[in-house]
Design brief:
The complex is a heterodimer. By secondary structure, chain A is α/β, with parallel strands linked by helices. Helices cover about 40% and strands about 15% of the residues of chain A. Chain A has helices at about 25-35, 65-75, 95-105, 120-130, 150-165, 180-195, 225, 240-245, 250-260, 260-265, 290, 300-315, and strands at about 55-60, 80-85, 110-115, 140-145, 170-175, 200, 215-220, 230-235, 275. In chain A, strand 3, helix 4 (about 120-130) and strand 4 (about 140-145) form a beta-alpha-beta unit. In chain A, helix 1 crosses helix 12 (about 300-315) and helix 5 (about 150-165) packs across helix 12. Chain A is globular and about 55 Å long. By secondary structure, chain B is α/β, with parallel strands linked by helices. Chain B has helices spanning about 10-25, 40-50, 70, 105-115; strands spanning about 5, 30-35, 55-60, 80-85, 90-100, 120-130, 140-145, 150-155, 165-170. The longest helix of chain B has 16 residues, at about 10-25. Classes of the chains: A alpha/beta, B alpha/beta. The interface between A and B is medium-sized, with 22 and 22 residues.
Chain lengths: ~325, ~170
């Protein structure tokens, strides 16, 4: 099957997942993002690239941070942004997802930024647009279920490249609830695509999905063991709702085994960086001393995230056919 | 196939341009030089070095301001724009390698205005090949030449820093 993200020339038409993207496209996004970083420091924090284009933020699932960064990115590209609070509107009245899309397309949307609780929803939308001949409308996946969060994956890669320069000699550890994490999945695909020789997944067995080894990932249930000698630590948020099920005993127990403390951080390389996609739970997956420490690059991730989203949107909006 | 051209000695043209610019900027305190990527950036580097203005050097990539984005999409090789000096009130010499339609210059002026309000912008180009589509004129020029629409002039910089200009024939 053809990758629905790419047009017949192999150019990026939609961004749905990092899985299967050629390295050249990933690098193109990262290179373009580096040219967008400086724009936020200027007198006029805008470029006219998407002037007159309408970007619809469709958030079927709440997310203040991701929605805000997409909104800022759109505005810095001079696009008009429309935020739809879907959970409080038509869907609640029974309208189907694709009917919602067709209605918004009739309002001359140029791009949909989609966050959805169900894996695959952005695919459905992109496929519908492709099949119904609406090829001028682009879709960005802003997180779908536990499947993918490609712009987060790309901004994580941008952050790693910024601090570490080269991917081909790195050991990267992803720590926490890998099972439910679309960030972890996107990061693993991106790291592998960019040629990172060693990707590690660290977490309790109940939160590690099967098949990680087949993706080329080394699995550790002992955090101290897994952190030894790593260059990059990506902490994942422990979602509170996981605590209510049988997957974990308690937040305190989790912190004891998998919380990133200064002592544990000392097991990694001395110049290791600590990342977190946010929002952080201090005292659950990460100690405040680490979150606020010198090795944390969590706030730069947020800043880079805007440039990376500008790059993605401007590349998509410039792709035809 | 690109072929080296006897008629355009890029190094000689650069010396001509340098002479004009040296005279014009000698009376301007705190002039700054901004090159348009890539060819204009090489020229701007040389000019600031030869005029002792290395701390007043900037680079512009016009990819985010091009008027053909809707038709052609984003340029695959965007370079960061770097303006390290205060644009407000500055006299800026904008440098490009080849002046043709004037659209790149229009875009570059818009970039500069998003950094501040310059007092003056002057334009220098190594070669002016005619064919303007906008009311743009250069203040300093190495050479004027007439080319066929299907020909293009391209500046190259060798490993030793030497500049060369070639005429490339575009395929129909």
């Amino acid at each position: 099957m053809l990758n629905p993200q790419l047009n017949k020339n192999g150019e990026l038409r939609h961004l749905l997942t990092i899985e299967g993207l050629p390295r050249s496209i990933v690098n193109h996004v990262l290179d373009t993002a580096s040219s967008f970083v400086g724009i936020s420091d200027r007198e006029v924090k805008k470029v006219p690239l998407m002037r007159g284009k309408s970007v619809f933020n469709l958030f079927f699932e709440n997310s203040t941070r991701t929605r805000t960064t997409f909104e800022i990115a759109s505005k810095r590209l001079s696009a008009d942004v429309i935020n739809l609070n879907i959970s409080a509107s038509s869907t609640a009245k029974g309208e189907s997802l694709l009917d919602t899309i067709d209605n918004l397309s009739a309002m001359h949307a140029d791009m949909f930024v989609v966050r959805h609780g169900r894996s695959g929803a952005p695919y459905l939308i992109a496929k519908h647009l492709n099949d119904s001949g609406q090829k001028g409308i682009h879709v960005v996946n802003a997180g779908d279920g536990s499947h993918a969060h490609p712009t987060q994956g790309l901004l994580d890669m941008y952050t790693i490249r910024h601090y570490k320069k080269d991917f081909t000699n790195l050991t990267v550890a992803i720590v926490g609830d890998i099972l439910h994490s679309r960030v972890a999945r996107s990061d693993i695909h991106a790291l592998t695509t960019l040629g990172v020789p060693e990707v590690r997944a660290i977490g309790p067995l109940t939160l590690l999905p099967g098949g990680l080894e087949q993706m080329g990932v080394r699995v550790f249930t002992d955090m101290d063991e897994g952190l030894k000698g790593v260059d990059v630590i990506i902490m994942l948020r422990l979602q509170n709702e996981r605590m209510s099920g049988a997957l974990l005993p308690s937040a305190q127990e989790y912190f004891k085994s998998y919380g990133l403390t200064p002592e544990r951080l000392a097991l990694a390389k001395p110049d290791a960086i600590v990342m977190h996609p946010g929002p952080m739970n201090r005292g659950v997956e990460i100690d405040s001393a680490v979150a606020d420490g010198k090795q944390a690059v969590i706030l730069p991730q947020v800043t880079f995230g805007i440039a990376v989203r500008m790059a993605v949107m401007s590349i998509l909006a410039g792709t035809h056919g | 196939m690109p072929s080296p051209n006897q008629y355009f000695d890029a190094e000689a043209l650069y010396r001509t341009l340098l002479g004009q610019v040296r005279v014009a900027l000698s009376s301007v305190p705190d002039a700054a030089i901004v090159g348009i990527h890539s060819g204009g950036a090489w020229l701007a580097e040389r000019l600031t070095h030869d005029l002792g203005l290395t701390n007043r050097l900037g680079f512009i990539d016009v990819s985010f301001y091009r008027d053909d984005y809707a038709k052609k999409g984003l340029h695959p090789d965007v370079k960061p724009t770097q303006i390290g000096f205060n644009v407000d009130g500055a006299t800026i010499l904008l440098v490009d390698d080849v002046l043709y339609t004037g659209r790149t210059v229009r875009a570059a002026i818009n970039v500069l205005f998003d950094y501040g309000r310059p007092a003056r912008i002057r334009l220098a180009a190594l070669a002016d090949r005619g064919g303007r589509e906008l009311p743009v004129a250069a203040d300093f020029i190495g050479v004027r030449a007439t080319l066929e629409p299907r020909q293009s002039l391209a500046l190259q910089r060798g490993a030793d820093g030497q500049l060369s200009l070639t005429i490339e024939q575009e395929n129909a």
